[in-house]
Amino acid sequence: MAEEVGYNELVLTKRNGGSIEDIRKANQIYIAARGNRQRAEGDHREWQRAERVTLFYDEARDLASRPHEAARNMLSIGAKELAVRCHGQSQKAIETTINQWLDRLAATIHSAI
User: Fold this and answer.
1) What's the CA gap between 79 and 102, in Å, rounded?
2) Are 6 and 29 contacting, i.e. CB atoms less than 8 angstroms apart?
3) Residue-level pLDDT at 13
4) Is there a contact between 33 and 78 (Cβ–Cβ < 8 Å)?
5) How confident is the model over 9-54, as pLDDT tens digits?
6) For residue 109, what are the contacts with CB-CB under 8 A and spacing of at least 6?
7) What does the DSSP assignment read for 25-48?
8) What per-residue confidence (pLDDT) applies to 40?
9) Nearest CA to 12 among 24, 1, 23?
10) Most buried by CB count within 10 Å: which residue of 15, 22, 58, 102?
């Protein structure tokens, strides 16, 4: 608000053919108001970070990708692991083995969250 008022005053002073001193004074007021706004925004961002209200993009991306990485790692070895464990087993034993493996996958994803 103060920045906008300062800017409008600067523009008016220039349009009305104000003296160099008047333009300089209006410009200083505008620059001071802009600096105050920027400092206030910076203080607010620091407060948000201190209170853990917000995250940086990289932090949010890492948090969101953690469960996917865990699942991808397990799925990449899943076929080999299950093939060895299920070879020569009955249908019921294979289903039990796969269900146990899927439960472990779900637990891994849940623990990564």
Assistant:
1) 12
2) yes
3) 87
4) no
5) 888 888 888 888 888 888 899 899 999 999 999 999 888 888 877 7
6) 67, 70, 71
7) HHHHHHHHHHHHHHHHHHHHHHHH
8) 93
9) 23
10) 22
Which residue's entry shows tokens 């201190």? 50
Percent of the chain with pLDDT over 70: 99
* Token pair recorded at residue 21: 């001193």
CA 67/CA 20 separation, integer angstroms: 62
pLDDT greater than 80 at residue 70: no
DSSP characters over 71-107: HHHHHHHHHHHHHHHHTT--HHHHHHHHHHHHHHHHH
- Spatial separation of the C-alpha atoms in residues 52 and 7, rounded to whole Å: 34
Tell me the chain's radius of gyration from C-alpha atoms.
31
Provide the residue type at 54 as one letter.
T
Contact 33, 3 (CB under 8 A): yes
Residues in the chain: 113
